[in-house]
Amino acid sequence: MNSDRGVVVERLEKSFGAVQALRGVDFSAEPGEVLGVLGPNGAGKTTTVDILATLIRPDHGRALVAGHDVVADPAAVRRRIMLTGQHAALDDMLSGYENLVMFARLMGLRKREARIRAHELLGEFDLERAAGRRVGTYSGGMRRRIDIACGLVVRPDVVFLDEPTTGLDPRSRQGVWDVVAGFKKAGITTLLTTQYLEEADALSDRIIVIDHGVVIARGTADELKARTGGSYCEVVPLELKDMPAIAAALDSLLPPENRATLTTESDRITIPAPDGARTLAEALRRLDSAGMELVDIALRRPSLDDVFLQLTGHLATTPEAVQPEVVS
Ligand SMILES: Nc1ncnc2c1ncn2[C@@H]1O[C@H](COP(=O)(O)OP(=O)(O)OP(=O)(O)O)[C@@H](O)[C@H]1O
Ligand SMILES: [Mg+2]
Fold this sequence. Notes:
Helices cover 36% and strands 24% of the residues. It contains twelve helices and 13 strands. By secondary structure, the chain is an alpha/beta fold. The protein has a six-stranded mixed beta sheet with strand order 6-7-8-3-9-10, sandwiched between helices. A four-stranded antiparallel beta sheet has the order 2-1-4-5, with helices on one face. It is globular and about 75 Å long. Helix 3 (96-106) runs parallel beside helix 5, helix 5 packs parallel to helix 6 and helix 8 (221-228) packs across helix 12. The chain has helices at residues 45-52, 74-80, 96-106, 111-124, 140-151, 170-185, 197-203, 221-228, 243-250, 256-259, 277-289, 304-312, and strands at 7-16, 19-29, 34-38, 60-65, 68-69, 81-83, 158-162, 189-193, 206-211, 214-219, 231-237, 269-273, 294-300. The structure holds adenosine-5'-triphosphate (ATP) and magnesium ion. Adenosine-5'-triphosphate (ATP) binds at residues 16, 19, 21, 39, 41-47.
């Protein structure tokens, strides 16, 4: 196992009072690999990341980050990692450039080196035009980028990104995606937790799914999708107001866990199609006799969302206020 720049986690356990947050988590990540860490709310993702970043200590088990034990040598671990959100120390009164120079100086770079490094990072993160502006005036996406840039003043071996794009608009999210691609190119090991499964799908080399403090599935996105098996049938109504009637017409074809994911925001209904075209034909027959008009009905391969739903019984993102009348 090449662990001197990667991550090795063995039987990690952690409790907070009566809450067993981690109950024996095992995984590893190789240098240059992006490992997606998925799981429903409260699964133990942040606890895992916090242990690896030496912010909290495990009760049992062992973790090596860039070859250093998180309990025996936390200082050595900290010199080799970057954690987003860590830089709440970002100074709003200083410009982006000044923040970078300050971090570089704190990391022991000489004044000239610090300035050079700051300019490099402003270029890499497409922040040159905002370099002279106070960070307090930055948008959410720019803030996220300068935050990550500050963590890269000295190149880390391992990067922890705990929900780096939550709450960002699609354009800013793309900016963070580009940053992650850059980590990969630089041979940096990246642990990425995210609520957006299409993000995990696009960025991760491998994925682990944590639930109730244990790893319940692992593999590439394709392997996980293949394990879910079968395809899905997606029904898109012409009129959103027909959603409850469509759910009712599908009846037994719509299992409770899929039914439970429907919200007032939903614009389509997904049902498992174990019999492929036959399930689709049956759905169409039922919807037809109920007089439902559709924009589209189609078979598709499972998405990571389907995998996640099947494994954990939840959607990755918790739907806002589910209205019971939607699913009648
Ligand atoms: N400092 C703490 N004190 C008490 N309980 C905690 C503490 N930190 C985490 N927990 C509990 O440990 C469990 C795991 O929490 P954790 O934050 O690791 O989950 P998560 O997978 O990151 O969830 P989310 O998707 O909501 O961020 C939860 O039940 C949480 O309430
Ligand atoms: Mg968390």
